[in-house]
Amino acid sequence: MLKAERYRHFVEYFSKQQPNPVTELHYNNPFQLLIAVILSAQCTDKRINQVTPALFERFPAPEDLAASSPEEVFTYIRSVSYPNNKAKHLVGMGKMLVEVFNSQVPSDIDDLQKMPGVGRKTANVIASVVFDAPAIAVDTHVFRVSNRIGLTTNARTPLAVEQQLTEYLPQDILGVAHHWLILHGRYICVARSPKCEICPLTWFCKYYERNNTEAALLRAEAAKIKKAKEAKKKKALNTISKELKKRSVDKDI
Ligand code: SF4
Predict the structure, then answer these.
(1) Would you call 250 a catalytic residue per the annotation?
(2) Which atom of ligand 1 is nearest to the CA of 206?
(3) How confident is the model over 43-71, as a mean pLDDT?
(4) Residue 54: what pLDDT?
(5) What's the whole-model pTM score?
(6) Exposure winner among 20, 102, 113, 229, fewest CB in 10 A?
(7) Sign of CA dihedral 51, 57, 61, 62
């Protein structure tokens, strides 16, 4: 199947099934989303949603974060991953918003990346979710699922995945495609054992095709037969060894 066809099937399927996907992070304004996305690195959205209500209440504006200390912020986020670093990042981010960006979250991806704790992925999420920019953030789910389906080829870095997705996907759906891939990766195409048996994308997924061709099935069958033969041989040897032991005992008696 040609790559362009895979993209067409991917877009058609998700446009029908999930026309308006949204982030699972809870927030009420761009500043809160920025905080939540910074915190979500290497952590689950569920965990972040547990800590942000108290955090947002204590730090409703960039000025509040800027005037705080990493030690204080830490007490609100101690249960997320890398709380020490993230506390420092949040205070630094608050300061930069106040001092450089007039307390407004910038829309430019380069400006966003100047802030502590904001890498390309976070910047793309903010640009696309808040400002409707044609950007796609590549996290671990987007990276894995794109490769498995075959939307990307030999893309070894998040930037390479971003570039290939941007090349093939229409600009106006880059933002929603990010959510499609994340949600699919979180609930079906999970990292260790993708749930292909319940996945509706098998008919155009490259990973599925590779692992379910006739040759792959024959290989699996041959391995099963070999294992069964080895088990039978082991059992026969055990029986012989037990019999020999028994005879030697009988002889001694
Ligand atoms: S068929 Fe399997 S590998 Fe392909 S997208 Fe679905 S779950 Fe992932």
Answers:
(1) no
(2) 4
(3) 96
(4) 97
(5) 0.78
(6) 20
(7) negative
- 196 is annotated as contributing to ligand binding: yes
CA 160 vs. chain centroid, Å, equals 16
Query: Annotated binding residue at 205?
Result: yes
pLDDT in tens, 217-242: 777 777 888 898 999 999 989 888 88
Would the pLDDT of 62 be above 90?
Answer: yes
The angle, 0 to 180 degrees and rounded to 10, between the axes of the packed helices 30-40 and 83-100 is 150
Locate 123 and state its tokens: 């910047």
DSSP letter string over 21-81?
Answer: ---SS--SSHHHHHHHHHHHTTS-HHHHHHHHHHHHHH--SHHHHHTS-HHHHHHHHTTSS
Task: Name the least confident of 175-184, 194-203, 236-245.
Answer: 236-245
Residues 6+ positions from 238 with CB-CB distance below 8 Å? none
CA of 194 to the centre of ligand 1 (A): 6
Per annotation, catalytic residue among 121, 132, 226, 245: 121
Res 253 pLDDT > 80: no
Please indicate whether residue 45 is annotated as part of the active site: no
Residues flanking ligand 1, CB < 6 Å: 148-149, 188-189, 194-196, 199, 201-202, 205, 207-208
Question: How far, in Å, from the CA of 203 to the mean position of ligand 1?
Answer: 9
Rounded distance from Cα 21 to ligand 1 centre (Å): 19
DSSP sequence for 66-124: HTS-HHHHHHHHTTSSSHHHHHHHHHHHHHHHHHHSTTS----HHHHTTSTT--HHHHH
